[in-house]
Amino acid sequence: MRILGKITANTDKKEAKDAIKDYEQHLFKAFYQAPRYVSNINVLMHGLGYFSDSLSHEEKAFFLDSLENIEKGKYH
To answer: What pTM was estimated for this model as a whole?
Structure first.
């Protein structure tokens, strides 16, 4: 994912077609690896940040408790 970020930043000043080709190649490599569960939790935390102004304190607490249970291996 870091490589994809660098390609997107285009610090090498590549032409768009070349940058897109590199991005596509590395994106497919990224898809071959299963994400770690902590990566999924990180994505969910970012989502919470996006919606946090619209959620009540109880809803936020429920969400965070649910993530904590996932981290501990308790899915129910």
So the answer is: 0.55
